[in-house]
Amino acid sequence: MRLDPTSLRLFVAVMEEQAIARAAAREHIATSAASRRLAELENQLKVRLFERSNRGIAPTPAAYTLLDLARSVLGEMDGIARQMREYGSGMRGHVRMVANISAITQFLPAQLKGFLAQHPEVQVHLQEKISTDIALAVAQNTADFGILNAGRYGGELTYMPYRQDELILIAPQGHPLTAQTRVCMREALAYDFVGAHTGSAINGVLTRSAAQLDLPLKLRIQVTSYDALCLMVAAGLGVGVLPRQSAALYQGSLPIQALRLDEPWAQRELVLCLRHYASLPPVARALVDHLVTPAAGAPEGPGLIP
């Protein structure tokens, strides 16, 4: 049995208007066509829906049962159409996103909160990865887009400016380096370091800087998160390097002090990478536009890329 939604809508209109002519006018079809559709519906269902007489039509008990069923079915069909339209307009859907810890701890919480407040039916699946793995995930289409440190990653990827951040050095309060507000790596390398996890961009710049200065990098311990790094530094296990705005989250609660790094690599650019903007699902394009657009109330300090 294939029930025609148009016939069901007409049937509901007849039940509500209590007259075929008025229902036909409401549904914009001829009265004769409406009568024919009702007869075909009764034939399909093999049940009489209306008693017909010179005084008009009278619904049968079966008609009242069908009215509830028809309203339910038509409501579900309208819901399907509405949700599919929302997918097409980017208002509903699922976005696969990867980002490095710098973007996640400094910028994304407030930005995602704003986007999801505007689009509550959108689901964002966010994973933290190091920059090389982010580029690979986007290139292999296991993520719609990613946010990573600017650099050379190969592959056919498109890059868009996202944000700038600044790497700073943190030391436990009372550490010899805290007698000044700015340090260079030559001074810092005299002390033990708390490093990030293997493969992190920060470990990479520390290793390269030490090699260029022909000095050893004394990694006393390595951790996998900024909060762990700050806790280890506060415990006196060494000094550490992390983004300034990430460090600011812990300065008020831990006995640590932030020092500016007099190194050219301390100023970094974060970029958004994707395969092709035009091929993104509409909801992913909407999120990309939201993330790369300079917003009022952006965090102070390392600001937006001009």
UniProtKB/TrEMBL annotation:
| UniProt GO molecular function | DNA binding; DNA-binding transcription factor activity
Gene Ontology CC terms, in alphabetical order: cytosol
Family the entry assigns: Belongs to the LysR transcriptional regulatory family.
Keyword annotations for this protein, in alphabetical order, are: DNA-binding, Transcription, Transcription regulation
Name by which UniProt lists this protein: LysR family transcriptional regulator
Matching CDD domains? PBP2_LTTR_like_1
Q: Which domain of life is it from?
A: Bacteria
Instruction: State the InterPro entries in the record.
Output: HTH-type_LysR_regulators, LysR_HTH_N, LysR_subst-bd, WH-like_DNA-bd_sf, WH_DNA-bd_sf
Which species is listed as the source? Comamonas aquatica DA1877
One Pfam family assigned to this protein is LysR_substrate
What are the HTH lysR-type domain coordinates in residue numbering? 3-60
